[in-house]
Specification:
With 121 residues, the chain is mostly beta strands. It is globular. The chain has a domain of 83 residues. It contains 1 helix and 6 strands.
Length: 121
């Protein structure tokens, strides 16, 4: 089965697609709740990954809370994201509901490996 993609353009030099059969519109589900403040911060840092990092307190499944500095890569689902942890120097998965005190910082303030700080839980 062949699918034709149509793009709307205002450039008059390109041929008009009027009169051609419309292709079905396929929309991907948004991977994260768009109203979530934390998700919006993460998305902003993803878009400026060369300049920005996220700093947050993360409660692990063992209950310990650590301060993390990460460079987010992508959302894995609506409640978790994949990021390069600058302390562990490897990609890690983080659950949004375990993140607190999220803030954006300049990437040039950090050099790997960043010391992993244990916070009062």
């Amino acid at each position: 089965m062949s699918t034709t993609l149509a793009m709307q353009t205002t450039d008059s030099r390109l041929p008009s697609l009027a009169g051609q059969a419309k292709a079905p519109v396929i929309q991907a589900k948004a991977p994260v709740m768009t109203g979530s403040r934390n998700a919006l911060l993460i998305r902003r840092v993803m878009q400026q990954s060369d300049d920005l990092v996220l700093v947050f307190d993360y409660r692990g499944k063992d209950g310990f809370v650590t301060r993390r500095v990460v460079s987010p890569i992508r959302f894995a689902s609506e409640n978790r994201f994949l990021a390069l942890c600058l302390s562990r120097e490897e990609p890690r998965q983080f659950y949004l509901d375990r993140c607190s005190n999220i803030r954006v910082d300049l990437a040039n303030n950090y050099v790997m490996p960043v010391e992993l700080l244990v916070c009062a839980g």
